[in-house]
Structure prediction request, 713 residues.
Amino acid sequence: MKNAAVLAVLIAAVVRGQAPVNVMPAPARMMRLPGEWTVDATFRASITGYRDESLERAVQRFATALSAKTGARLDGVAAPDGKSTTVRIRCAGPGRDAANESYTLVVRSAGVELKAQEPLGVLRGLATLYELVNVTTAGAAAPAVSIEDRPRFEWRGLMIDVARHFMPVDDLLRQIDGMEMVKLNVLHLHLSDAQAFRVESKVWPKLTADGSEGLFYTQDDIRRIVAYAQDRGVRVVPEFDVPGHTKAWLVGYPELAAKPGPYHMGADADVAHATLDPSKEQVYEFLDRLFGEMAALFPDRTFHIGGDEVTGRHWAASPSIQAFMKEKGFADQHQLQAYFTGRVYEIVRKHGKTMIGWDEILRPGLPTDVVVQAWRSSKMMARAAIDGHAVIESGPYYLDFVLPAGYHYRMDPVDTASFGISAAEMEMAKGTPIGPYMTVDKVVSGPTPLTPAQQGLIKGGEAALWSELVTAEMLDGRLWPRMAAIAERFWSPKTVVDEDDMYRRLAAIDRDLETIGLRHRTNSRLMLERFAAGYGATVGIFAETVEPIKFYGRHSRRSQPGRPPEGRALADATPPENLAIRQFEREVRSAAANRYGPQEVRDHVRAMLTVWRDNEDRFAEAAAENAALRPFLPMSRDLAALARAGLEAMTFQEQRKRAPARWLETQLALTGKYKDQASAAAGVVYSILRPQPATELTLAVAPSIEILIKAVK
Ligand code: ACM
Prediction:
């Protein structure tokens, strides 16, 4: 008995010693210490050194969030050096404009010490401490650690397109909570586009009166968003996209347009081609007054003017614009846009801001204090840095491609060959229309050597979520948890690249994100139930095996007759990356590699395959009642066939038999149908040019089952 008790204590100690560290982004430096800090109702925090109200709110917020996570009632901020203080925070001084986000955090069984130069560092340290706490049946505790942390990049952004689909204030505030947790610091709002203008202008009221469906942010809304973000260490960068993407402006103010009006809300050819007229002085007077108003409303030092995807069609068709170009000696639309950009630059500068634009604004002579946001290829990022511009890299981080977190995670912001259209794809794409928004410029990927000084101009990265296919209800699910992996790429040292470890931590962060109030799982479930109309269990089983088709495959199918509106398709309810499939793949690899065990893993794989196999008939019954399910009947049948094949493969394996060649051929033909769309290997252009699958979903579990099949080859 005595020995057993000793053993139990020893095992408990070992288990405790192995408590996982689930911090994301991974800290710059971290050392494990013996023991752990137990979170219970004795929790008090104290702040010494510099303190202000924002900092006190942050600590109170932390205590509230930790209470919700652990179930312990925590009392928040105590008097400095109070007896029961367990989290001692020391902040050296107030924040400055060039914010210092570094901090040190030491967690021991006796308590926690968090030190920072500025309040921002305290925020970052509290986010780490929140994540460190593991909740188990034994209680809540953080493993003892010593951390020294600071960001790799100063710009760690997220762009949300609130123009294509309006995102209500509360939905945005929730995303800012998530951003704070994973230490992102820039929220870039794409506030206007062809579809709508989303901020109240008192100077030009028709921008929203005529250029929105009544869904826009009042100036008070904006002040609320900005203040909320500021409290959480997040800057808000506004974007007003000019001169293209401006149709919504022209509904109320057609006199600004390159092509005579009238303009109307709704989908028509003007969506892609409507453009401001760069030859009219009136346009610059309009922008001066608007940008003056908006520069005062958004306190950030930067101001984004868009500048992307000007098709030039309306410029080419306008005799007065053509005459203007001739008079100025402009050879092409790019020189005309460069002139426009130069005029807008003067306006933005006059209002005290640093201008940012998408990489199309990069032209010889662009003032070097303009920041370039690269999106078409990493080559553009390199070009901008070579020309002396500060650069934000975005191309590899387009969340609307609905790719797995690992795809983005592998892309480094300073890698000049990471993202772009390959020369081979360019060749394939020649002369092929690929949708109203895709301009295939001569941008190709490939390494471009940069000097250390040029590398230093790369200020960070920004993920982008364009919302053509994203409703407010879908927002959380299209962002989280993948955004956390990208946040790690922007914050953590370049050497942090272990993808398995990233996914392990992502699963924990996924739960934390739901705990702090994000709705990615909840809304997905609600949408699925609505879609399934009473068949939630059956459709849910099917949905666990699929993902939306990748890149812009769904965009190019938008005008298909009978397609449900955004937010009403099964592909909308389905997460971009199904973490359950990833877990299944891990188990399959283990089962395929080891015929004799681990038995519990083999049992679980069999159980999953059996559930999928047996879902076929129920799905067919549901589809007989619910017409929306019918397009997925072939995929449901394929799932059942593959599940059967997976079970057969496991039996072959257990009997130490090789599979018959004919059997193998049949199964691989089936998995082959889904392999390409399920993988992120295909490029953007390639994915658009290829014949699209019959539905907006791909059977994402197929490659995992293929592993089992190939193991008995
Ligand atoms: C962009 O994706 N049009 C910047």
